[in-house]
Every structure is written in structure tokens, then in C-alpha cells.
Amino acid sequence: MHLITSSHSDRQLPQHRIPSRIVTSIPQQSVIYPGHCPRSHKHVQSTTGQGTATLATVDVKPRKTYYGDYHDPNRTVGLRIANGGAGQAGLIGAWADSFINYMVKKKQFEPFAVKWYLGDTTESIAFLENKVVDVAVTYNEAAERQLYEIGLLSAWVYGFRDHFYLVGPRSNPAALDKSENILSMIKKIVRTGNEHSVQPPVDKPPTRFLSRYDKSATNIKESELFIKIGQVPWAYAYSKWYHQYPRFPIQALEAASLLHEYTLSDRGIWLSSSAEVQSRLEIYKQGQDTPGDEEEDILLNPAHVLVAQEENILNKSIGKAFVVWVQLYDAENREGGQWVVEHFTGFAQTGETKEPLYTRAPSNWSPYK
């Protein structure tokens, strides 16, 4: 059996997850096996019963700082926001710049800075609990409700709608039919993955599924899909076609494209990825908005804005103002968080017609039920 030495450990691990003919297509340090995580770790205890969250930033440092139209590295920090995919796609930065400009020009505040901390849903919640950030933009209502029920939030509002995508290799070894529902597709991935583990096809790559395996909202959603069909491929003895790859979403999508694997991603990340990555993948199923405020599609990915208790917010006035602004849609003046969402097309699209990455929040959603 061929062995690969991971750059993250001196352990030698069997190359049973990735076909040898394509393992050289990505850097060796990107080949991840069970129990190996390439993200830098800092452990912070969660008080919501979710255990110890693994925070993917060294010493919990912000990934980027925004200043609006008033760039000055010496600006006082007015707000700290944690988020994963929308931060990587650039929406959090667009929100930050627009909010700063609004507060200075419309509310006569002194210019300030907004810091963005990179973290998936579980990590962002832990950041909020441990007073590292004032705001967490997250994607799992059950986890968010725990914070609300134990009194750790001063506000909980709908931020925007993202949409999960099931994508995979154009060779389509699982023979997915786009007219099928998502659960039928997952069943096919499981069935053909098991078959190809025993006897790989000779004319195309075998069926494999790349999981971020990191407690992110995407990882939770994919787990939900597998459980709905009675499967737990991550359980011992784990399924050989189930590839655990704990990276952030843009990196995970690129890996899936190089390794010819199916994976669950989202619209924001897809439209923020390069044309080269997209050219190697096919979208087999995508989440859709439903009429009105109903959220019936299992692939809809709602993003909610959680704001810490007032005593834990860096600047209470700015924190309160952000809650109001993020729900504002002012088309006439092109202002408000919802206006930014509706018009944000990211930075990766190169065509004349650019698609918005996200859709606006429903008008009458309430978590207080």
C-alpha cells in the first residue's frame, strides 16, 4: 500500500481516500486524512453545550480590518464581526464599509474601524460567547437558539439568504439526474461510493464525497442529508469514499474540483471561486428561495445576525445601530444592509452580467417563537 507522509504530522497514513493518479494535482499539505486538520487551532470552551470549539485563527486575530471611506490604521475599532463563507466572499467587508460610511455621513459618528474574524458557525458562536466579537453571522438556527435561550444575545435578526449547492465532477460517476430530489442524489452517492470502493470504474474517477468535517453549517447540513437516508459514513468503520477535509469553504471547493469529488458548497462560495474551479465541476442541485417567507427547501441556507449582550459589546451605540442598519433596505438612497445584500456580486465574476451572491432576508421573520 502506497504511503504519504503528511506535512502536519510525522505519522504515515495509507493513501486509501484519494486516487493516486490525482493526488499529485494538489499540494501534499492539502491531502487530509481523518483526525488531521490543517487549520491553526485555539480551543475555546462553549457554554451552550456544544463542547469545545476549535477556533481557526492563531491567537484569535482578525482576518481583515475595514475603514469605509476613511482609511486610517489608527482608527478606533467600533465593531467586531465573526463569519466564515460570506467573509471570504467579501459580503462582510461590503457590509462593514457601507455601515461605516452610513454612520459617519448620516448619523454624524466619528470614523471607526470594523474587524472581521474568520470562523465557521460553531467557531463564530464561540467567538461571541467568549467576548472576542460583538456580532456573529451564522447559519444554524438550533445552535443560535441555544444562545438566545440562555440570555447571551441582545439581538437576533435575519441577515440574508445563501443557498446550498451539491456539486461534483462533470464525469458524474454517481450518475446523478438533475431532475431528482436531493435525498435521491445522496442515496446514489452512497450506493455508488460503496460499489466503487470495492471495484473502481476503469473509465472515470470513482464516486467520492468531500466533507469539510469541521462543525460548520455546511458540515451540519451534509450530515443532516446523510442521516435522513439512514447513513452515517463518518462513523467507524468509516466509508472509504467519504473524504474528510476540514478547510474553509473556498479551499474545500477547490479541493473537490481537483480531486473529482462531490461536495456540498453554497452559491456565495461558488460565485466567489475562480472560473478554473467552476470549469471542473457541475452543479447538480441548488437551494431555492420559496414564495413569501416560507423556508421549505432543505438546501436553503439562512444567515442570521447574532449580537452579544450589551455589556459585552465593544461600543454599545454602534452595536445597536448595526442591528437596525443590517435590516434596512433604502433603495432610493442605496443604503442599508439589505440593499448591500441585493447588489453584492463579489469579486470573482468576470462576465458582463454578474449575479448577486445572496438574496435579501424575508421581511417578517422572527426567532421569538
UniProtKB/TrEMBL annotation:
Residue ranges of every copy of the PBP domain listed in the record: 93-326
Any Pfam family the entry gives: PBP_like_2
The protein, known as: PBP domain-containing protein
Organism: Leucocoprinus leucothites
